[in-house]
Structures are given as structure tokens and as C-alpha cells.
């Protein structure tokens, strides 16, 4: 069923358009040998991915700082692997990871096709909890920056999804009305419920086909958006 009367589409970036897991794995495959860290990259990535989600939720909920996010996810991964590493080296790895991560440019299958399709029909925007410089570099590296009229991040807005204030900030920046707008993202709490609580419509990018409330609009592949928009 088509969703009518929309003029503005707001996308999340990581885990929705930009393939964080693949790009993160590539960054660690390069930087672990660079620092002489003798752990298997696949084993490390298998641990790091869920830890990254855990620490981002803590950061989103205001329980930890950006510095604690960047340090803690690495520290806990190395600890789980019983790998002895100094705090100083963890800090160095953290800095290099943040530098390398956005140089990789893998997008979810169908990203460019769906953005081309939507761009002629809607104004497109980003709302991300990520940090300004890193997110800008990701979009430039993946060559998708030109699709979006505005990019709202937590640093600009002074708050993070699901806080209604970040959606209000993004709407103002986009000169868009709530009734005319829709949010698309991979996180039920931050993207979908956050948007709905603010009065925006929302679509859940449910890549892993997780159980979700039947009333929530969802797609499992980006190209399925053509059926809705």
C-alpha cells in the first residue's frame, strides 16, 4: 500500500544506508596488524559488533560520554578475547579506527537505486546520532552526500534520537511539516518510536527480520521502499 501525501523523507545513516558492519570489519582488518595486535580479525569483529550496539545505546541514553563509548567498546572486546593491551594502546587504536572507518564506502544493497528513485519525488534528509565530522566523511566517501538537502546530527541538535527535539530540529532545518514527513531507520527505539512520538510517520528498516509490532510499517530490503513511497 502506497503512503501518500509525503514530501520529505528522513533517513538514518548507519545500519540503514551505510553498511556499518562491513565497513567496521574492513577497518579492523587493516588496523589490528598495523598495531601488531595478534588477534583474529573475524573473532574480534564478532565481539565488537554487539558491543558497539550496547555502547551506543548507553551513549544515546546519556549514561556514558563519547570518550567512554570509543574506549569501552574496544576495552571490553579485548578483555573478552583475553588479550592483554594497555590503555594507551587502546586509545591509539580508537583514534585510528575513527580515522579509518569512514574511508570505507560500502552501502546496503539497493541504496543508490532507491535514492535515485526517491530523489525525484521527495526532498531527502539525514538524522543521525553520529558525530558531525565522521558522518560527513562517510557520506563523502560513499558518494551519497549530494542526495540530501540537510544532515542533522546530535552535535548540531544538542540531543540524540529518540529525543523529540532532534526531530524538531531536523524538520526546521528541512523546512518540512510533520504531516508531510516520514523517518526511515533500523532502530525501533531511536528511529521509529522516536519519530512516531514526535508526530512523524516512520518505516522500520528491519534487515534481520526481527519481530516487530504489526502496526509498524517495515521493509527488509531498501528496494521494497518503492512499494510504499
UniProtKB/TrEMBL annotation:
Classification via Gene3D superfamilies: HAD superfamily/HAD-like, Putative phosphatase, domain 2
A molecular function GO annotation: 5'-nucleotidase activity
Protein name, UniProt field: Noncanonical pyrimidine nucleotidase, YjjG family
Organism: Flavobacterium zepuense
Amino acid at each position: 500500500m502506497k503512503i501518500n501525501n509525503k514530501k520529505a523523507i528522513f533517513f538514518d545513516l548507519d545500519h540503514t544506508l551505510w553498511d556499518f558492519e562491513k565497513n567496521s570489519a574492513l577497518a579492523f582488518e587493516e588496523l589490528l596488524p598495523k598495531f601488531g595486535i595478534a588477534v583474529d580479525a573475524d573473532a574480534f569483529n564478532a565481539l565488537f559488533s554487539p558491543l558497539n550496539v550496547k555502547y551506543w545505546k548507553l551513549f544515546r541514553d546519556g549514561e556514558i560520554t563519547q570518550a567512554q563509548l570509543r574506549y569501552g567498546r574496544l576495552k571490553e572486546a579485548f578483555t573478552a578475547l583475553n588479550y592483554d593491551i594497555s590503555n594507551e594502546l587502546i586509545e591509539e587504536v580508537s583514534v585510528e579506527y575513527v580515522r579509518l572507518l569512514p574511508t570505507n564506502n560500502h552501502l546496503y544493497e539497493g541504496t543508490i537505486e532507491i535514492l535515485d528513485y526517491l530523489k525525484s519525488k521527495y526532498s531527502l534528509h539525514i538524522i543521525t546520532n553520529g558525530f558531525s565530522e565522521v558522518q560527513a566523511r562517510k557520506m563523502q566517501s560513499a558518494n551519497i552526500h549530494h542526495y540530501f538537502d540537510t544532515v542533522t546530527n546530535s552535535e548540531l541538535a544538542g540531543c540524540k534520537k529518540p529525543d523529540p527535539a532532534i526531530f524538531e530540529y531536523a524538520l526546521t532545518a528541512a523546512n518540512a511539516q510533520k504531516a508531510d514527513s516520514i523517518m526511515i531507520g533500523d532502530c525501533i527505539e531511536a528511529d521509529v518510536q522516536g519519530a512516531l512520538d514526535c508526530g512523524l510517520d516512520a518505516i522500520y528498516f528491519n534487515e534481520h527480520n526481527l519481530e516487530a509490532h504489526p502496526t509498524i510499517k517495515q521493509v527488509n530490503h531498501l528496494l521494497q521502499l518503492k512499494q510504499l513511497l
